[in-house]
Amino acid sequence: MDTSQFPPYTVPVHMRFRDLDAYGHVNNAVMFNYLEEARISLLGQRFYAADAQQDIQFLVRKASCEYLRPLLLTGPEVLITMRISEMRGASFLLDYAIHDNEGTEYARAETLMVCFDPVRNRPARIPAWFLEHLAQNTGG
């Protein structure tokens, strides 16, 4: 499926002092929390309401992160830019760039998301209502 209809989406994520490790930079595991916050922002509250009504779940099947440089607590937030780079029948790949306002990139990550039918206990095709939601809510 052509993913160009879903432009990149950038969201600020607040950093906290507790996110730091003994070396004074954001702990590697915390980066996955930042990705989750950004993903929730992309999907939005409307998605979760629709998700509950449709009996469809979107699960993380695989997650990876490449750390490029230490992320220090130099400001109140970091930016995460996401884009859907690949979409198949029951899954889509989200690419992330974790960066600051000046464009310095600290990490690149990706998550493979799977559409799941909990009643049948198996993957399900990505529903049209979800594609419409993405088209309306990306580009921010």
Describe this structure as you would to a colleague.
InterPro entries: 4-hydroxybenzoyl-CoA_TE (IPR050563), HotDog_dom_sf (IPR029069). This protein is an alpha+beta fold and 140 residues long. The chain has one domain (9-137): Roll (Thiol Ester Dehydrase, Chain A). The chain is built from 2 helices and 6 strands; from the N terminus they run E-H-E-E-E-E-E-H. Strands 1, 2, 3, 4, 5 and 6 form a 6-stranded antiparallel β-sheet that branches. Strand 4 (91-99) and strand 5 form a beta hairpin. Helix 1 (28-54) crosses helix 2. The longest helix is centred in the N-terminal third of the chain and has 27 residues, at 28-54. It is elongated. The model has no long low-confidence stretch (mean pLDDT 88).
Compact description:
It contains two helices and six strands.
Write the layout of secondary structure elements.
Layout: E1 9-14, H1 28-54, E2 57-67, E3 77-87, E4 91-99, E5 105-117, E6 122-123, H2 128-137
Antiparallel strand pairs: 1-3, 2-5, 3-4, 4-5, 5-6
Helix pairs in contact: 1-2
